[in-house]
Every structure is written in structure tokens, then in C-alpha cells.
Input
Amino acid sequence: MPDHQRGSQISNRQHSLESQGQGFVAGVDIGGTSLRIALSDMTGKIVAEWSTSTADISDPHEIVRMIGSGVDTLLAKSGSSRAELRAIAAGAPGITDTDKGIVLATSYLMGWTDVPFRDLLEAEMGVPAFIDNDVNMAALGEHAAGIAQGVKNFVFLAIGTGVGAGIVLNGELFRGEGWIAGEVGYMLVPGASVAPVGDGQPGALEEIVGGEGIQAHWRSLWSENSATLPIDATATQIFDCALRHDPLARAVLGLASRTLAYAIYNISLMLNCPLFVLGGSVGLHPALGDATRAILLKQNERVQPQVVASSLGTKAQLTGAVCRALEVAKAPALIGKE
Amino acid sequence: MPDHQRGSQISNRQHSLESQGQGFVAGVDIGGTSLRIALSDMTGKIVAEWSTSTADISDPHEIVRMIGSGVDTLLAKSGSSRAELRAIAAGAPGITDTDKGIVLATSYLMGWTDVPFRDLLEAEMGVPAFIDNDVNMAALGEHAAGIAQGVKNFVFLAIGTGVGAGIVLNGELFRGEGWIAGEVGYMLVPGASVAPVGDGQPGALEEIVGGEGIQAHWRSLWSENSATLPIDATATQIFDCALRHDPLARAVLGLASRTLAYAIYNISLMLNCPLFVLGGSVGLHPALGDATRAILLKQNERVQPQVVASSLGTKAQLTGAVCRALEVAKAPALIGKE
Output
């Protein structure tokens, strides 16, 4: 539906609520296996949160119904109802066309292709909606209310199972020609595999810096006699162990942080970007940040980007979604056109 | 001098000329050892060109005087005089603050630091001036009148002795927080040296893909019996020889093109950039473009940026400078504020 039509359909209720400064917005974080929702008042204050598992659920219509039910629960908890909801924004784990509100593709877990998720959300909720890639949502969260507040140029690096970047240039998210800017998980740096990458395969950088790559490196070094953690330790357990000076864990941390430092250095050269915010379960670990900073310090004295942990942590995406929903509530027809 | 003052000082003559659609602009390409000037009419048609050597001359005042004398020569050749010059724009081989018109730093050849070159040019020429980095000027040239005409997102890669990038995002040059976006000559890719880089040293990528790096690789493989070119062959001679299937030359081309392909791939991932334009004496060689494209084809079927040679060739910078001078002549106070 063209934006001017969407605008007119939702405008009456919006205007009467807005004139009173009343109402709520909802921010949604759609993960691979979980769904989180935050309800905020119009000042951006979170008044209630809700989450549920989406394991084995991938149908977008079902996800939208779950969001509707979650928002209703939160509104009821706040002594309110759908009539007071003014906008909703969601971060989805996939390539997203924010102009058209379409999730173009997600990973195998969800298996979405060309899902008009904004329209589905608007139909379910009866308010203007906005949808974006989840890493971009997290970058927006850090920009609006986190450690990158007011920073004109920065890169948010989400490091979990995979590695992705949300890029803010001149104060705005840069999404690229085909909505896939920030696909740094495939970056080729010294030590990374240069083997051709097939569809659905992890990228060369992810294979070293991502959670599964870190676990695989640990397993390759592991032996019963030398290891202080089991063979199936998680990336964060391994990094914890590295902080206790375990040699095997330090070797794993060493490779991951060196490789991450190379990637940050390359991005910094390209974009002249002074700040990198690390997020995601692996990226938030202090051992990784410390080791990465130490390597960058030595690489090139002229290129010294600041590398910090996300201050919003696991709430970066949800915060970004709430911020975007507030923007949508205030100017429903302007969003997504940046 | 603040822009509104600059604007008012030059406005009278500008307006009377502009109302008649008459006059000329000059584009200047300041190289490490040469100076080239093109005089254009107000439709962008080059009416005369001039060049001279600047070997052993690095004083910016002297360079500005040479530019003045060159422009006068061209104006006289066109049966005109300084009174009909309306604007001038120059590309300088260094980091340039386009807002303030200051060349912040150049390579050791020129040795400039914080040179207010725009003010010097305006004082000498008596017309509004604009100054930018030379690679950015070349990118602008390709965008305005070359192979990237109308392309919203592309990267111009200048490969000569060194390697640098001019980045156009959403139709505008992206210069970065400290005016040094596009410093890709230092990029760390597989096979590149990860040794720390000191001030003034060539970057890891330049050491392989730049002209001197290519010559050094040739020298390292050279022996009197096996080589069909002398030990001091240039990069373009070596690439010519590779086209004739010389094994040594092909090995040198192979490493350079593989490394360039990795760099292009990395930039493309980051910026979701569909077009790369190769320029500079080394970058323009067809053997490098062909070999690089062949490697990219195999790397990742989802990431397939187009790689083409600059259509303006050695005139890309001069063309960009003329385009910018035309913009300045039409809206002197607006330029450099993008």
C-alpha cells in the first residue's frame, strides 16, 4: 500500500492521541527462536516487557499473531488497550527492505523470502509499523540511547553465532544498494579461508570470530589432559577461562581477537570510522574487547578506532525498535525514506 | 574567511556573467610531479588544456602562481581573460578538508600540512575555488561524466604507486569523520603483511597491488635465464608481458589480481556496493581487470560487484575538477557542505 494511503488510514486516531501526548508504542525483537516485546510510553520510557519462545514456529502470520497477543498482554498490564497503541516497530533477523517493509530473506531457521511483514503487522495491530534488520535496529538503539549517542559515524558489530554490522554514516543508517550493507561475516582477512563460499555457508570471518567458529577452534585444540573445560564449552565459557590464563583458551581468544581486530581495522580504513560498538553474546564478552583493543593499538598508530562494548547489551535491538516506533508515531509517513 | 563573506566578495562579477550564461571555469589536477589544467565553457565543454612539470617544486604559493599562469595561458588561447573566469576547482594529492578548503596532509613528495589552499587559490584567481582530494575528484569525474554516470553507490579505486578509494554513497562522495575515508591501501587481506605500519610506510595492500609492490614482486622472481623483461620492468610492462603468457609475469599478475579481488570483495560486503571503477596507471591495465573479475566470479555467487576500467582514464581527476568548478560557479556558497 502506498505510504500516503497508509498515512490517511491511520491518521485520525493518531492525531487525537498525539494532541494529548498520550498512548504507547511497541518495540519488537524477532530472534531466531525467541520473541521479545517492550511497551513504551510516548517519552520512551519502557513500561512493560514480554517474551516468549518461537522454537519450531516460522510462519510469519503466526509470528504476527504472537506479537499481537504479546502487545495485548503488555497493554492490559499497563491498564490500557489496543486503542492506545500508536505505532509498532520490529527488528527481524534477515535482509529487510525498509522502504517497502519487506523481509527479503532470513537464515534457514526462519526461511522467510519476500515477506511483507510491515503490512502484516499493520493489518494485525491497526497502527503504522516499521520493520528493519535486527542488527540495524541494535545500531539505532545504541545511537539513540546507548554508548553511540550523538556519534555521527560508527559501526555496531553484532557477534553471536554469526557476525554482522549496522553502519551509521553521517548520523543515519546506511543500508546499501540491495539492503545488505554490513555483511562483514564474509570478510577476507589474514588467516581466514579464501575458499569459495556457497549459499547458506558461514562466512570466512564468522568461521573464526563467530560463536560456532570459536567452539570449533576449541574442539580442535582440546585434549582430555590439557583442557580445563569440556570439549563442548561455549564461546563465553572459553573466554571466561582465558581470563583465568588457561593456555588453550588464550590461544582461542588470541585468534578470534586478532581476526576481529583485522576486520575492525579494515572497516575503519574504508569508512574513516572512529567508533566500533561490540554487541551480541560473543561480542559483549570483555575478554574479546580487551584483546582486540590491544592488537589494534599496535597495528597502525594513525588508525586507532575506539572499540567499546554495547551499553544496552542484549537490549540494544529492543531499544532501537522502541525508538523507531516512537519516530513512526510522530511522523508515520516519513520513516523508512532516509 | 566565512562562506557568506566569500560569497559576497565575488558575487557581483559572478552574477553579471551568469545572467549572460558566459564565462569559463578551470579544473586543476595537482599531481606529485605535474600540474594539469583544463579550461571549460559553462556547458562543461573543455576548450583548452595545459600541463607542466612540478618536479622539485612543493611550495604551495609557487604552485598557486603556476596555476594562475596556466589559466591565463588557456584564457588567452581562447581569446579571453581573467575577467571571464568564474570558478576554479583543484584536486590535490592529500587529505583535504573540503569544508574549510584546507589540505591537511600530503605524501612526502609535497610535504604539505594544513595548507589553506582554497584561500590561496581564491586570492590568486579572484574567483570562488574548491579543493578536494585527487581520488575523490576522479570519483566525481566518473560519476558526472564517466562510466559511473548516474550510479548511486560505487567505489573508484585509484591504483598507481599507491592505492586509494573514492567512495560515492547515495549519490554523494563520502569523506569520513576525518576526511580520510577510502584509505584502502592499508587493508589487511589474506596474503598481506600484518606487520605494524609506521608513519609514511606503504600499506599492506599497496605493497602487493601498487606499482612499486608489483615491481618488487617481479624483482624477487627475476633471473636472467627465465625472464623476458629486464629486472627493472614497470608494472604495466609486466602486465603486458602476462598477456603474452609469460609465466613469471603471470605469477606477478596472479598475486596482484587475487589480492585486489579480496579487497574489492571486502568493500563490496561492507557497503553492498555494486560497482567498482579501476583507475590509475596500474588500475587501468586490462590484464588486471580481467584477472580480478575472474577471481571474484568464483568467490561467492551472491556477492558479484561489477568491476570496470575508468572510462575517463588519466582524465578522470581533471574532469571531476571541471565538474566541481561548474557547480561552484553556479552556487558558490553551497559547495563543500554536502
In short: The interface with chain B takes residues 152-153, 165, 167, 169-170, 174-184, 186-192, 194, 196-199, 262, 265-267, 269-274, 298-303 of chain A (CB under 8 Å).
